[in-house]
Design goal:
The structure is a homodimer of 404-residue chains. The first copy, chain A, has eight helices and 26 strands. Chain A is α/β, with parallel strands linked by helices and 404 residues long.
Chain lengths: 404, 404
């Protein structure tokens, strides 16, 4: 048995960024960039007014000004502003040639085409310089970044219309077990509905992968061996990793050029995890128990997808940590916990915000077969091997289950 | 001018849950349920073994047992187990009739079909009772819940194959401004690329709505009035709300049965927000400045979508708070802030995790035209009207910008 950390390292080191595709700006949300995107233009492209008012020369002080034209957004004043002159300007309007200050409209008295204001009302503060937000050639979003909605607006402002992104890695999912049939299908005696695959597909999609369902395979070596034919960057098997005295997945795949990297991780739930290669394709064999499957996915599958997308090298800011799931946060424990044994434990728990702090309350019942408890959970409490007993108020490591 | 809170209340009260559609389990991730989903089966449907070992009668104590059959998952033992008998059982196997205890395989010595173990090894702890996870008729996911990946696995286990969900509300987006053209298109003098709509569409999609792009409209009343023809549950205009002395959107829509609810909110950025109705369709007129647009979307558009999806009545657990954006968390301030004026402010900021606590550091530059700063932000710091100066370490209210 190896530690969770070693298993994560071995898995992550088995993947590298996959090939790329070029896509349109409109489809870029959530995709991972495979190149630095640099602005094609200054933003703003020219100095503009931040307010509605009048563009003037500051040097003229409080002298009255003659209004010689207008400059609304999109309609620059074509002439040049001279001494004693003003141009009516609106938010986003281009600062006319010759002007170096704005007087906001609230400060102005006017009659006909003459305006009056105090010298002190005249300020360059409301002029946004060309390139204030960014300059042509600035990197607006770096290689390896997952594009957010805010990035999209920024890229559009930089006149970027397409980008090279990582292809979504294909992850084949095969559910193994004679007892399984699809939800709603007739059930044999002793049969249950296959459930993990549905949750896993949604997680893979949320993390940027493309799940492909390989279906349900019975517990025979011949059937299980067919997963070697999946056209995918990663094959995930669910179940068949801890059947009786032997491991069915390993045994079945022996005929298909399977090389084991490791089997069994010192964790709870999820111990009988397999990792290896089917020819050149990595294979992650997860326990069939749905709670174990989904927790193993958060711990081991997500980092694999991150590595294929090239996001794993990025410095993680806090919100990304919330999202990436494999990273942890600290919360205060709401109730006492006994000392842990030698396996790293992931307790299903609720989060509570109280007095400006985040508290975490593990469920009393931690049976690893209870999907209902996992579905109600807000976070997993991480208990290290050999962790001593903990009391209410102790800071404790959690993995928030946000968004999946 | 009204307060942010009043604006949010007036907007939320203008929407109610929209109509529903019935969709397959495989497409349910992220959708909002319009009915309680109840389990069609007990889970497990029958008592099963949690371990590999032997099913026995506890009453027989440490007596040797004769192995009379096997019960792997999906293949129940068909007979009845009697005194002095055992059935070889595997994880997920149905507990045979007559058995009431499991001896795990590690505790057993065997020879031929006879097995030996200590009486103390015999336990009912490894029997998972029928319905341990849930019982037929239990509500697995409630009306108004946004379905997570974990919910999907739970619903599948409960044999649920389809559900009634809220239709994605259509949100029409019209960008207004003579200065705008699409990214990559030729630019007029004084022209810039329309950018807010791209970010807004991605946000609407992330929040469960269906964005429909109404395109770019010039600053003329006739053109702007065409938004009244949009086939949508909500019309959003970007720009045209603060042009010169008048409000162009209101003026243009007067001919199209527009009723104003409010105009202008005491906030920064984002003051000139409009809310009203075009006939019966709500209209949200947002400032054209992309930073204002996206912050107003988080504060006002997301709650509108939530109300249409029927999620707003749900008690928000912490991870949902992270997601919903309109809810806030507490973090410690990394640097001092001056006293605030009478407008509620939303400062762009970075989050840092340090010593088990979350710290927030507002950017020095808060110019509302700087999309590059918003894109780098992890959170918004909320500064209430009249908030006194704050010093490093002070707990402060933040809106995390997670996932968008």
């Amino acid at each position: 048995m190896i530690s969770v950390e070693e298993a994560q390292q071995r898995i992550a080191s088995a993947f590298s960024p996959i090939d790329t595709e070029t896509i349109d700006l409109a489809h870029m949300a959530g995709r991972v960039l495979a190149e630095d995107l640099t602005a094609h233009t200054d933003q703003p492209p020219f100095p503009i007014s931040a307010m509605d008012g009048y563009a003037v020369r500051a040097y003229d002080g409080g002298e009255p000004r003659r209004v010689i034209g207008t400059a609304p957004a999109g309609h620059p004043f074509k002439g040049k502003l001279g001494s004693g002159e003003a141009v009516r300007i609106f938010t986003g309007g281009v600062i006319p040639q010759g002007a170096d200050a704005i007087v906001i409209q609230e400060e102005v008295d006017g009659e006909g085409d003459m305006i009056h204001f105090n010298a002190g009302a005249c300020t360059s503060d409301y002029i946004r310089a060309a390139g204030l937000d960014f300059k042509a050639g600035d990197v607006l979003a770096a290689n390896g970044k997952r594009v957010t909605a805010r990035d999209l607006a920024l890229l559009a402002a930089g006149d970027i219309t397409y980008a090279k992104v990582r292809r979504r890695p294909r992850v084949a999912i095969a559910s193994i077990g004679d007892e399984l049939s699809r939800p709603g299908e007739p059930r044999q005696p002793g049969g249950i509905a296959a459930s993990s695959g549905y949750g896993l597909s949604a997680m893979i999609q949320a993390w940027g992968g493309a799940p492909c369902d390989f279906g349900i395979l019975p517990d025979t070596a011949q059937e299980i061996a067919t997963v070697a034919d999946a056209d995918a960057e990663l094959v995930v098997t669910l179940g068949g990793v801890s059947v009786g005295d032997h491991d069915l997945v390993q045994k079945s795949l022996g005929t298909r050029d399977f090389t084991l990297d490791f089997w069994k991780v010192a964790m709870r739930p999820g111990k009988p995890l397999i990792f290896g290669r089917l020819g050149t394709t990595p294979l992650l064999g997860m326990p069939g128990n749905p709670v174990s499957t989904l927790i193993c996915a958060i711990l081991f599958l997500r980092p694999a997808i991150d590595a294929m997308l090239g996001t794993d090298k990025q410095t993680c800011s806090l919100p990304q940590r919330f999202k990436c799931g494999c990273r942890t946060l600290t919360a205060r424990l709401k109730r006492e916990l006994p000392a842990n044994d030698s396996r790293q434990s992931y307790l299903r728990a609720r989060l509570i915000q109280e007095g400006g702090e985040v508290w975490v309350e593990p469920f009393e019942v931690q049976d690893s077969s209870m999907l209902s408890i996992l579905a109600q959970s807000d976070a997993l409490v991480v208990r290290a091997p050999g962790a001593p007993a903990a009391k209410p108020g102790d800071p404790t490591e959690i993995i928030p289950l946000d968004g999946y």
